[in-house]
Design brief:
Type Iii Antifreeze Protein Isoform Hplc 12; 5 helices; six-stranded antiparallel beta sheet; 3 domains; two-stranded antiparallel sheet; 291 residues; alpha+beta; 26% helix
Length: 291
């Protein structure tokens, strides 16, 4: 204790400590601050749910001091993953902002296999969208009103059974995943309905969207198994099975065998018409076979 009271000893201790700090700890600290490490940084803006591609990111060297432990350092660990949140150009990428699989909200867009397409139609009135009650998975029929110069109302058979894959409000948020407001008055109303269609249906919908007002009528809401039955009926109408196509061709062939005066061909009378069969001429008169 007497030694610590000696000013000379205290001075020497302070000198030693300052030397240790100046030539030991300070260089180590400066080295840690100046140490460079490679991290992945965004070079393009990315929206929530988007898949990150190679042209959206780059690897850059930055000071390694005080970097988060979960910052991504290799581009191969980022490319091909999906953004959990919106990211802007220049942002560092943290592991918590990435998802291995498409977000549930956008998964339906990543399941298109080339045979089907997704198309959105505008809900032009509250009633046209079933008063905001449509949901993903519903089977709907589409009716178009005010079509063309004559303002016709039509129900195209090509759009008899169509599957809803999303209902979206005016801000681009899907109904199934938007945050519910406590005040129902602030709840956004649906603005568009996204449908799963084939190219033929997509063309028809685009035309009706431009020339009329489309209304959705709910046909079925329930299990996927039963919903698929309706879609199967629609698919068979758009692309009839081979046996039905052959039958339709035979009908057309049979009709083509009639002569210009409306008389049935001799082969048709001989092979298909039994005695007592009534044949109608083009002029409306009747001919009874066998009389």
């Amino acid at each position: 204790m007497n030694i610590l009271k000696n000013r000379t000893v205290l001075g020497l201790i302070c000198i030693v400590l300052s030397l240790i700090i100046c030539f030991g700890l300070t260089p180590m600290f400066n080295g840690a601050v100046k140490a460079q490490t490679e991290i992945v940084r965004m070079v393009k803006d990315v929206k929530q749910g988007d898949m990150i591609t190679a042209d959206m990111v780059t690897a850059v060297k930055v000071g390694g001091y005080n970097l988060p432990d979960n910052v991504m350092k290799q581009t191969e660990n980022v490319v091909g993953k999906y953004a959990r949140h919106d990211m802007q150009s220049g942002d560092y990428i943290l592991s918590g902002k990435l998802s291995e699989r498409p977000l549930a909200e956008f998964a339906y867009l990543h399941e298109l296999d080339g045979t089907h397409q997704a198309i959105s139609i505008t809900i032009k009135s509250f009633a046209a969208g079933l008063s905001g009650k449509l949901e993903a998975g519903d089977i709907v029929s589409l009716i178009a009103s005010d079509v063309g110069d004559f303002r016709q109302t039509i129900a195209p058979p090509e759009l008899r059974y169509v599957k809803v894959i999303a209902v979206t409000d005016g801000k681009g948020y899907d109904k199934e995943y938007e945050e519910r407001n406590k005040n129902d008055d602030d709840k956004p109303l649906p603005s568009t309905v996204t449908l799963l269609v084939v190219p033929e249906q997509a063309i028809l919908l685009a035309e009706l969207e431009a020339t009329g007002r489309i209304h959705c009528t709910l046909v079925y809401r329930g299990t996927t198994e039963n919903a698929d039955k309706f879609l199967k009926i629609q698919a068979d109408y758009l692309n009839p099975p081979e046996d039905e196509s052959v039958e339709a061709a035979e009908v057309k062939k049979s009709e083509s065998t009639k002569n210009t005066e409306g008389e049935p061909a001799q082969s048709e009378v001989k092979n298909e018409n039994k005695p007592g069969t009534v044949i109608y001429r083009a002029d409306g008169s009747e001919v009874i076979i066998g009389e």
